[in-house]
Amino acid sequence: MILPLHVRLQIIVVNFYLNISNMNSIRTLIVLPFIFLATIVTAQEGNETFIDFGDEKITKAEFARIYKKNNSGEMVTKSTVEEYLELYINFKLKVKEAEEKGLDTISDFVNELAGYRKQLAQPYLSAEGVIEELKKEAYARLQEDIKASHILIRSSYDDSAEDTLKAFEKARKIRKIAVGGKDFSEVAKQYSEDPSAETNGGNLGYFTAFYMVYPFESAAYNTKKGEISKIVRSKFGYHILKVEDRRPASGNVSAAHILISSDRELSKTDDPEGKIREINKKIEEGASFEDMAAEFSDDTRSASNGGKLPMFGVGRMVPEFEEVAFSLEKDGDISEPFKTQYGWHIIKRITRAGVDTYDKVERELTQKVKKDSRSNLSENVVLEKIMKQYGFKENLKERDDFYALVDSSIFVGKWNPKSAEKLNKTLFEIGDKKVSQQDFTKYLADQSNQKKIDIQVFVNKRYEAFKKKELLMYKDSKLDSEFPEFKALMEEYHDGILLFNLTDDLVWSKASSDTLGLEAFYEMNKENYKWGDRVDATVYSLISEEMGNQVKKMIKDGKTESEMVEVLNRTSQLNVQYEMKKYEKGEDEFVDNVEWKEGFSNYIPNYNRFKMIHIKEVLQPTYKTTADARGIITSDYQEYLEDNWVKELRSKYKYTVNEKALEALKTELK
Description:
- This protein is of the alpha+beta class.
- The protein contains 28 helices and 19 strands.
- Mean pLDDT is 87; it is low at 1-46 and 74-78.
């Protein structure tokens, strides 16, 4: 059972808190695991033992520190020292059990912990200062949209020096033509190696930061409107840009929409365009946009809120939707019906705002910068710092020895490393480590099935990748000794992952897969799983009372709901809408407010329409089946298994609590 890191971390120690008796806040269960993981430390000398687990002793100072951290601040519910002590003991005993079972030696655990180590090491292997500057640069660029055209001359970083020079010279000559005054779009059509240029003349439309590769983006933002850039190199080749326009950023828009889905199951119509146009006509005649959204929109998440969507900016919605949303000039403007891949929409503009403040978008900027090619700038800074910190000596002539020994067989995985067996010199030194030509030979031997490129270019690229790997590995090997907090965090992950895996095996997955145990638990606790009063009913939404009268007649004549709607909606798809199911109290306000007896209710005005409830049967309270209540039964069964497991662990493992130290701590914490 592999989950994303942030989900695993949230679950890892939640189990630690399952026996809380006086801590009812769900938020506590979410927040405490993170705080707990961040505060476990090893026992400090000079402090009396507070809990003795035999092979592990926890000092009073250590426990007090953890307790204070987890019971401070407004977001954490106050608990007593005794309660917290019991939870802590449960946690430690579960980790002991996992280790005794050898779960910390299996390959899945070892590999998973290594994966987490790689993620946790990232902050120590990145140049935060450079990242911060790149974030600020990107934010400044997000204030402006650029419209540009370009000419591309293809060239790969894998090309030989000769081919690279040819591509550059070609780009230089073309730029001279463009700067000389010839229409840029015509030059693009004639020379650009971007296939789309034949039809669009190189026009890329408007874009902002993160839409293009970083070198291209930088060239665009550093070129004035109407001017042609210098030649720019990217992974695609050489670019020549002309900036056609610069405008303030589109910003963010808050809008509401009505969707009639293209999915027949959602929209209950074979003609979504016809239905959306009927709705649009009603709005033009004075019907409330919000009322129509609530009644007819197939976007159920926004319909209940009058169709309102969260505020969004460029790149958040499908292009057709964005184009219409940002084209509405004033708050309150409503679009004509239009189509996207999801169906037919009408949009109402609520408000429009500029780009969010830096503080609000900083987290998103961090993620984007680290994923973008501009992060290479940060990586280079890190490598330079590592080389400076530990001392780096390089012998490039030893790298050049491989030019004559590597041939094209390496591109198909057939290169024989024995051809380099006589190379035994040192390629470079980092700290107390020497990296030899043979180390590089082994690395090269694993580089099979590569794209065929110039041998010298290949060796140089592989050498740089190898050097980077070795530098980062060396720094990683020093993290535990140089950063005590990193070492402690890795120990916490070790315990947390063990606890997760064992709890999943004995509680979570067991509760889901143990059918016989679940059934037995259900039978023992059947009274906890009963339906309240319910009705089997259909809720109708009607264009008029007359339409309701027709519904009543057709239902009494034996027509089904779908047959009835097919007939009555021939003139308008808005005539009748319906939903049928078994309703409990509190599930539908209209069902709640009618008398629960078989038959049709009176007409209830609603959004310039009418509701009518048809109660087919009043259902008496009955026991829920395991299928009806499987979720809550499984949750209760998990808690039952958890309680029994903790009792077994407390019986199996010996531990003692220093009662004198406990009383002293309670006094100190008052």
